[in-house]
Amino acid sequence: MLLRKRAWDIMNEEFSTIEDSASLAEAVRSLRDSMKEMPDNHIVVVKKKNGSLRGVVSIWTLLKAVEDMVLKDEDLTLTEEADWDRAFKRAGTACCSASLDNHIEEDVVILKPTDPMLVVLEIFRKKKRTWALVQEGGNIIGVVLLSDVYREVTRDLVQQF
């Protein structure tokens, strides 16, 4: 099974994309919308204006961006008197206009559609990533998530139990 199945067999062809000129708020909205259909998904593919790949924005980079904006609040101190709700609201407002530039992960894992599951699994393990992009002819055609790999690998194991 690990040699028979390929990346194209388990990739998700429906995935969220945004342009690199988008705001942080647009990335958050795009990821939330995507997670309604695919709860395991936690990335948005970021493309340049010409359609080529720029990178991804992950749930981790988005959470870090929100955290950084909350912690930048001058009125906020780590005391009980701090108004965290107000600070979070201001951070949300700041996110609406913040640029996506500083939050794009450009070091992405790229798979070929014909990569066998064994290679996919090894790449995930070595790179310590929970996602990879599938590229063919310079275009991103799908996304493979760690949960997809797990389901495939354990499908036959569960039957053996």
Structural notes for this entry:
- This protein has 161 residues and is α/β, with parallel strands linked by helices.
- It has one domain: Roll (CBS-domain).
- The chain is 44% helix and 18% strand.
- The strands form two sheets. Strands 1-2-3 form a three-stranded mixed sheet. Strands 4-5-6 form a three-stranded mixed sheet.
- Helix 3 (59-71) crosses helix 4.
- The longest helix has 15 residues, at 146-160.
- The mean pLDDT is 87.
Helical proportion, percent range: 40-55%
Class per helix and strand makeup: alpha/beta
Number of helices: 6
> Could you give me the name of the CATH homologous superfamily?
CBS-domain
The main pleated sheet reads as:
3 strands, mixed
Shape: globular
CATH hierarchy: architecture = Roll
The low-confidence parts are none
Q: Which CATH first-tier class would you pick?
A: Alpha Beta
Strand order of the largest sheet: 1-2-3
| Number of E-state strands | 6
Over all CA atoms, what is the radius of gyration? 19 Å
Examine the coordinates and then state which fold CATH places here, giving the name of the CATH topology.
Answer: CBS-domain
Overall average pLDDT:
87
What order do the SSEs take from the amino end to the carboxyl end, as H and E?
HEHEEHHEHEEH
Q: What is the number of domains?
A: 1
Strand content: 15-25%
| Alpha-carbon distance between the two ends | 17 Å
Organism: Maridesulfovibrio salexigens (strain ATCC 14822 / DSM 2638 / NCIMB 8403 / VKM B-1763)
Keywords: CBS domain
Pfam families: CBS
Domain CBS: 11-74, 104-160
Short description:
The chain is of the alpha/beta class.
